[in-house]
Design goal:
The protein is mainly α and 244 residues long. The protein has one domain. Helix 1 crosses helix 2 and helix 5 packs across helix 7. The longest helix has 26 residues.
C-alpha cells in the first residue's frame, strides 16, 4: 500500500483503530448471521474484497487514506469470522488457538528483523516517524493479531466468566500499560505497536458483542459504522513529515 495512503500513528490513529475493531466485530457477526454466510463462507468473501481493494489502491492517487481504513475494517471482519470458526464452529480448545495464533504473530513480526529489507517496501514496521509501512507482512500480522484478539476476548468471557464492566476495566488497564511502555527505552517501537494492536483487537469484540447483545445486531452494526466513518471524516488526518 502506498505510504501516502496510510495514516501516521497517534491519538486519531488509535481511536480510529478502536472504532474499526468494534465495527468489524459487528460486521463479522452481520455477515455470518444476517447475511447467512456463516463463518466458513464469510472469510473468502472478505479476502476477495481485500485483494480487490489492494489492487485498486495501486491505481489511485496518493493521499486516499480511506483505502487503508477500509482495508482495516475488512480484515477486522474476516478476523472475527476466523476466530469464531476456530473457537465456536470447530470447537478448538482456547489454549490451542491462543498459543497457535500467538506463535504465528510472533514469527511474522520477527521476520521483519531477521531478514534485511530488500527495499523500503519490505522494511520493518512501523517506521520511526510514526508512519506505518503496510506491506504484505503487515497485513498478515494484522489479520493474525485481530483473530488472536477476538479469541482472547472470548476466552476472558468464557474461562474467567468476567462481566462486561470488569473485562472492560482489565482491558483498559492493559491498554494504558502498553502505551505507557512506549516511554521505556527497552520497548521497541515495533513491539509496542503490535501489543497495542493486540489490545485493541481484544477490546473490540468486548464492546461490539455488548452493543449487539444490548440492542439489535443490525442497529449496532449501522451505529458503529457511522461512528467509525464519522470519526475519520470529522477528525482530519495527520500526515507523516517524510511522506513522499
Amino acid at each position: 500500500m502506498q505510504t501516502r495512503n496510510v495514516p501516521v500513528t497517534g491519538a486519531r490513529y488509535w481511536i480510529g483503530m478502536s472504532a474499526a475493531s468494534v465495527f468489524g466485530v459487528n460486521m463479522g457477526d452481520y455477515v455470518s448471521r444476517i447475511m447467512h454466510l456463516g463463518d466458513w463462507k464469510g472469510v473468502p468473501v472478505m479476502v476477495l474484497l481485500f485483494a480487490g481493494l489492494l489492487l485498486a489502491e495501486r491505481r489511485v492517487r496518493p493521499g486516499m487514506e480511506a483505502m487503508y481504513w477500509i482495508a482495516v475494517a475488512l480484515e477486522r471482519t474476516a478476523a472475527t469470522n476466523i476466530a469464531d470458526l476456530m473457537t465456536h464452529d470447530l470447537d478448538w480448545n482456547y489454549g490451542l488457538v491462543l498459543s497457535g495464533l500467538g506463535a504465528l504473530l510472533t514469527g511474522i513480526i520477527a521476520l521483519g528483523g531477521v531478514f534485511p529489507p530488500r527495499s523500503a517496501r519490505d522494511a520493518a514496521l512501523p517506521l520511526p516517524n510514526g508512519a506505518v509501512l503496510a506491506n504484505w507482512r503487515y497485513w498478515l500480522a494484522m489479520l493474525i493479531a485481530e483473530s488472536l484478539g477476538t479469541a482472547l476476548s472470548d476466552a476472558f468471557s468464557d474461562w474467567l466468566d468476567l462481566s462486561f464492566y470488569v473485562e472492560w476495566a482489565v482491558l483498559l488497564s492493559m491498554f494504558a500499560l502498553v502505551f505507557g511502555a512506549r516511554t521505556i527505552p527497552a520497548f521497541t517501537n515495533r513491539l509496542t505497536y503490535w501489543l497495542a494492536v493486540l489490545v485493541v483487537g481484544t477490546c473490540g469484540p468486548t464492546v461490539g458483542d455488548w452493543l449487539a447483545h444490548s440492542g439489535h445486531l443490525r442497529l449496532s452494526t449501522a451505529l458503529t459504522c457511522a461512528f467509525f466513518v464519522g470519526l475519520l471524516v470529522v477528525w482530519k488526518r495527520d500526515r507523516a513529515t517524510s511522506a513522499a
